[in-house]
Design goal:
The protein is built from ten helices and eight strands. It is an alpha/beta fold and 260 residues long. The N and C termini lie far apart (35 Å).
Length: 260
Amino acid sequence: MACCPEGSLPSLQTSYEPRGKEIKVKDLDAYLVGQGSRALIVAYDIYGFGRTSGRARAVCDQLANEGFLVIMPDFFRGTAWPVGKTFDDTMGTWLKTMPYEPQVCSDVHANVVPYLREQHGAKCIGMAGFCWGAWLIQKVSSVPEVLSCGVSFHPSLQIEETLFGGSIDEMIGAVKCPQLLMPAGNDLNMVQAGGQVITKLKASDIERVRDGSRIHAFPDMMHGFMLKAALDVGDEKVKRDVSAAFRLAVDYFNKYMGEL
């Protein structure tokens, strides 16, 4: 598939009531929650920004509970993958309408980052991403002195090559901050332990990228588990791994936030 591997979880409807607020950052919609000088930018999966995007806003709220200021911008600008639509060949066509440059790049570096620093006094910024959002983290991480670290859940980094004609090695070779990747069992080999991505990160010329980057795989989970695996159906493995992945992310942010 263009983005999500075969067997990926479909959209998830929840009754969760978010406790943050929707704001405007210039002309960009965003969900904002929490406070503090440590800020996290959350980049969602293909289902986007709205209340139909599984647990995306719930995860933002959980991160805020851990002491972070959290913002989830609507990088898709209202054009998320439709809930209930099957994963078909049109997904690639749709995603190709949102390359990193110029709009998404501008949304991050001209809108969101200055907003966090100037309006909220953010001293350091990390980034959490899911599926497509994990690819965005790698792109943002190529700019020096922006992110302290990145955490990617079930990453779909292959779109750099399959959709945008780039090179995985070149994209990862440009990363300037440490990365934690948490692939599911059906994610591609390139993002698994011993795969292309971690191998390239561990060969970085930047010491803190080499030393800090790591992978923690969740082989019992399917792509999308962090936002779209149901937690209320008695599957103890899902509850175990969603909880573990969240804790790993928080611990990683606490360790590396503040370093540039």
